[in-house]
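anyone seen this seq b4? input:
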Amino acid sequence: MGWEGASGGWSSRGSGVFTPAALPGLALWLRADQGIAFGGMVAPVATGTTPPAVTFTGVPTADTQSFEVDCTTGGTIGTAQATIKRNGVVVFGPAVFAATEGQFSGVTVSFPGGANAYTNHNVWTTVPSVASWTSIDGSATVFAQATQANQPAWIAPGLVLAGFAAGIGGQPTVRVVGTASQSLTTGAFARALPHTFSLVCVLNAWAASAGWFYSAAGIIGYAGPVTAYSLNEGGTVVSNYCGSTYVGISAAIGFEVTAAGGRILGSKAPIGAGPAPTVAFAGALSLGEYSGAHYLSGDISEVVATGALSVAQVASLQEYRGSYYGLAP
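predicted toks r here
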């Protein structure tokens, strides 16, 4: 189950403006309001005095955005009372709760019993986890994570929920937590691209993050070093990493983003002697990690892989980004 967003892949906020669909050589387009399938609920954020380990299990329905449990009367199982909210709407209580309550749209809430004491200011909040993210460029490329504990969170549009900040510009986002080794990977991504290509992303790397948001094994066609170029974002150039020298098919490429804030990363082009006529992706492609070791903490809202971008096309992307995400050029 998951989120499909507005008809045609665009919310009203982004309608009537330039979209990545118009870019030349479009090979990949992911946006977090489309193609999301849920795998469960992420580990809840718990607050209050020594909150017991309440859990949320099951796969939520596609229209689920959040769950919240509020203890309204303290005590143990059989005397304590709580309300359960789904998408901010009460679906249970306030009432005495049992060891398990639900299902509520596919989700069961479990309360530890025994000597566990609940207090009337304990609160637990959670959002859906992302089992897969399917591209909307026509290739329907699926990025997936089978292990539920390693699945990123999906932040709904305009989410207001304790413990979960809203996405970039209030739009949907896929949120990865590096300490939980969260990422999404496609096992086979083989798409030809023009020799000079662009990877355009809107993301927010948390300031403490030292991970890489993107990695690809087997980028073929380069005969020399590659370099990365970042579009200036409000006077701040994004810190990024693009590797050193890649030859043949035994290649990997990634970006390290250490500054906070919504970003668009720009064109990358090969330099040096002997460029091949085309560049292609071949092999695994991951979002949120590099080489199974460097994990990002932050939000990934949009990813586009396309051909070389003209100055006018870059300007159109900036305008689109400003219209949809509210990010200044």
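The first strand starts at residue 2 and ends at 3. The chain has one helix and 28 strands. kinda curious what u guys think
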